[in-house]
Amino acid sequence: MNWFRGIAALAGLTVREAMRQRLWLVFAVVGAAFLLAVPQLTAVDDAARLKLSVLAVTTGIGFVITLMAVLVAPAALRRDLDAKTAYTLFAKPLKPTAYLLGRWTGVQLWLVLGVLGMALAGVAAIGMQFGRFPAMRTTAVPVGWQQISAVGEATAVEDRKTRLSLSGMPGNGVRWRLTAVPPAPPEGHELLLRAQVLGTSPDQPVGEALVEIRAIVDGTAQALPLDPASPYGRHELHASAGRVLLKHRDNSSRDLGQDYLRLRLPAEAIAADGSATIQLTRLESRTVIVFDRADGLLLGRPAGGLLGNLLRGGLVLAAGAGLLAAWALFCAVASNLGVTLLGGLTLFFAGSTLDMVRETLEYENPSLVVRRMLELALVVMPDFNRFPIATDLAAGQGVAWATVGSAWLYYGAYGAVFLTVAWIALRRKEL
Amino acid sequence: MPDAGPVLQTIGLTKVYTDFWGRPRVRALDDLTLDVRPGEVFGLLGPNGSGKTTTIKLLLGLIRPSKGDAFVFGRDPSDQAVKRRLGYLPEETYLYRFLDAEETLRFFGNLFAIPRAVLSRRIGELIELVGLQHARKRRLGEYSKGMARRLGLATALINDPDLVVLDEPTSGLDPLGSAEVKDLIVDLKRKGKTILLCSHLLADVEDVCDRLAILSQGTLREMGRVDELLTASERTTVELDRPDAATLAAVTAAAGSSLAGVSHPRERLEAHFRRIVAQSRERAPGGDAKP
């Protein structure tokens, strides 16, 4: 009880300190910047501007709370040590754990308040500028993936393969299996389909391919209707049910509203056990169709409004910021404020480059020593790109509570380690 | 007091500060052995750099001894149970400038997990005790040094401690404030509290302490009861109230060769100052107001 009161007292003190130092002005300035900047953004069309606006708002929130995390609690800790307030504090029944957790909790509360304020300003800016908000979807990935030969033979795709390429004679295809599909609404669930459509030789880009998509229910195939709002897929000459025109979409753009062919999965296409099997068949030989395992077919569901998703996204960003705050607290115990700031930002930037490290390991041929160091970095460094909230929200991908939980588990584990190290350092420190 | 043994005890307490590499840099305290008994006011005297603050830090568990042991209420000083019964006023007032007096006391009260209703009552009492009613909602950044000192004292008493450690409690206070602090110390002693008073203002210590220890260069030089240490037993003072010349001559004659001198007793400056201020306030229209 005493321990929790100590944590609560320190957390309240940290928030009050930030308020009294008028750090809320930073949030206010950023919120005002959203209101001013969103109308100034330019892009090829309105949809792209909307996407860019969401990206700018989310990135702005992430940037500000990252800086706040590195500064607020560590600066308060350093002030306690340098101004000797720590004498008064630790002469009271306040354990170093309660002190550190209190400071950390305080900065997290402060960040959540900041996220709330900036998200409201961002959503207001977008609403005023566009008069609408992007549709948000949560997506589910199929659990099973099979390749179908031209004679109808199904072969499971190896787990290690992230892509599947369909070429040659028509009639071959791919089969996905979705599980735990919830009961469908009257209009059916949304199925999102996306692929690269290439010519049979690199210098012969084609860009679109006629395919047939059906649900397999109890051994019988059922044509899936094209969603009336699908951005593409209609074929004027082959308008029969189940036949759609798949257009080339590469990884340079990912927007659930614009880049995916949209189909409807009716209730009768879902088996009693909540599974659904979807089969795509190539109808032309002149194209090569490439599907990504993570992205080829998705079950899309409405994910609420932009504000709710932005707030959940903010919580994910706050989880990463919490890790940085814990690390910066350790730096502040061990060193001065300058080193703390440098240390905090270094970890952030290093943890943001892990995608490049992976690419280097995959495509370059570094020396053994460098390779081992890079592999070690992949294992021990926190990955700040693990939850790409800004690009996801810009793509219309909602942020589920499960994602928030995963982020807190992932970053929280690192944060716990850093707080433990900070605790050891603080215990050993003589005031 | 439930504790039968000494409230504070040090046995061969030594502190050597080291550099980054662990090499000894300065021996701040050397082989200090003393004890403070329940209910007494114990003075720790010494010039700057004599090891007073180091002793206090060791007794508060803020630093670890290089050698020897320290016990507070019979336990290790870093024990949380010890800290719950202890109030500490550091040499300088280290408080948060962005809080006001009430917020400061509430914050520190929360560290003791004092029930909210009790805490609210205690905050009111302490603010009145240290005379900060007029500034209870003012932020500490706007406080004078003396006001901050008074609030620091209130902070030290927020948990109604059994042991109060006061490091230069009158530092930054005007003579009246100093006198009030000394009155407070006497009042705390009357309530059965144990007080460790650390000061280099000898008059402060002399006025309120039962026993004292004198430190110099990290070593204990002298320890004992104040009256024992200060009484010159080989000399005797005879005070006469308005003696006439004949009486004075008779007394000096009777003293003979043992007479060391004849003079008028002097009032102590602090008592004189307090009397003058009190008289001026009595004469002033509208009476008195606490500073």
Please provide a written account of the structure.
The complex is a heterodimer of chains A (431) and B (291). Chain A has 431 residues and is of the alpha+beta class. Helix content of chain A is 49%, strand content 17%. In chain A, strand 8 and strand 9 form a beta hairpin. Chain A is elongated, with a radius of gyration of 26 Å. The model of chain A has no long low-confidence stretch (mean pLDDT 90). Chain B is globular and about 70 Å long. The two termini of chain B are 35 Å apart. Chain B is built from ten helices and nine strands. In chain B, strand 8 and strand 9 form a beta hairpin. The interface between A and B is medium-sized, with 27 and 31 residues.
Keywords for this entry:
heterodimer; A: 431 residues; alpha+beta; seven-stranded antiparallel beta sheet; four-stranded antiparallel beta sheet; 11 helices; 14 strands; 49% helix; B: 291 residues; alpha/beta; three-stranded antiparallel beta sheet; 22% strand; disordered C terminus
Separate helix tally of chain A = 11
Give the H and E element order of chain B.
Answer: EEEHEHEHHHEHEHEEHHH
Quaternary structure type: heterodimer
Largest sheet, strands/sense/barrel of chain B: 6 strands, mixed
User: Could you report the average pLDDT of chain A, rounded to the nearest whole number?
Assistant: 90
Assign a percent range to the helix content of chain B: 25-40%
Give the overall form of chain A.
elongated
Number of helices of chain B: 10
What does this entry show, briefly?
Chain A is built from 11 helices and 14 strands. Chain A is α+β, with helices and mostly antiparallel strands and 431 residues long. Chain B is 36% helix and 22% strand.
Tell me the layout of helices and strands.
The complex is a heterodimer of chains A (431) and B (291).
Chain A: H1 2-20, H2 24-37, H3 46-82, H4 85-90, H5 96-130, E1 137-140, E2 144-148, E3 154-156, E4 163-166, E5 173-178, E6 189-193, E7 196-199, E8 208-217, E9 220-223, E10 243-247, E11 261-265, E12 276-282, E13 287-292, E14 297-302, H6 306-334, H7 337-351, H8 354-363, H9 368-380, H10 389-394, H11 401-428
Antiparallel strand pairs in A: 1-14, 2-3, 2-5, 4-13, 5-12, 6-11, 6-14, 7-13, 8-9, 8-10, 8-12
Helix pairs in contact in A: 1-5, 2-3, 2-5, 3-5, 3-6, 3-7, 5-6, 5-11, 6-7, 6-11, 8-9
Chain B: E1 8-18, E2 24-36, E3 41-45, H1 52-60, E4 67-72, H2 80-84, E5 86-89, H3 101-111, H4 116-129, H5 145-156, E6 163-167, H6 175-190, E7 194-199, H7 202-208, E8 211-216, E9 219-225, H8 226-230, H9 245-255, H10 269-283
Parallel strand pairs in B: 3-7, 3-8, 5-6, 6-7
Antiparallel strand pairs in B: 1-2, 1-4, 8-9
Helix pairs in contact in B: 3-4
